Amino acid sequence: MAQSGARDDPFPAFRFEVVMDDMPVSGFSDCSGLQLELDVFDYQEGGLNGFVLKFPGRTKQTNITLKRGIVDRRMWDWFYDLTHGIVRFRNGSIVVRDPSGSSVAMEWRFSRAFPTKWVGPELNANQNSVAVETLELCHQGLERRK
Question: For residue 27, what are the contacts with CB-CB under 8 A and spacing of at least 6?
């Protein structure tokens, strides 16, 4: 018999933070690209014409895209250094907090990340919107910790 009032609700997607090695916790308004995909190899075994055997191959990860209102220039400096041959890999985490914000509900850890794309704000004198920068990070692995 099911217990009355005991249920697991999904976590809200707006209570998250991004933490990287030597940078302060960053507040981003948008985070996407938490995605892994497995290559699949087809093997056509001789004499078996009813199906094709499938085997797992390498794992591919998509780039993580982060957006935030511009508050300082640390993200720009990290990308700009790369354009001058200064490579700084950073490890980091994307942490989702519970509805109260007091404890960690989920955490994804990425490793050896560096920026591959920086997009500046769209500026328009006819609007009253926040200047938002976008940083796209490639990485060498994504692991769910919690």
Answer: 17, 68
pTM score above 0.70: yes
Which segments of 64-118 does DSSP mark as H helices, in order?
A: 74-83
Domain range 16-38+51-144, CATH architecture: Roll (2.30)
Of 68, 82, 63, 62, nearest to 120 by C-alpha is: 68
Report the candidate in 38, 1, 32, 35 with the shortest Cα–Cα distance to residue 16: 32
Local structure of residue 29 (DSSP, 8 states): S
Q: 21-78: per-residue pLDDT in tens?
A: 887 767 788 999 999 999 999 999 888 788 999 999 999 999 999 998 887 888 889 9
Spatial CA neighbour of 135 closest among 92, 83, 76, 80? 76
Length of the chain: 146
Please state the domain extents for the chain.
16-38+51-144
Query: How many other β-carbons are positioned within 10 Å of the β-carbon of residue 88?
Result: 13
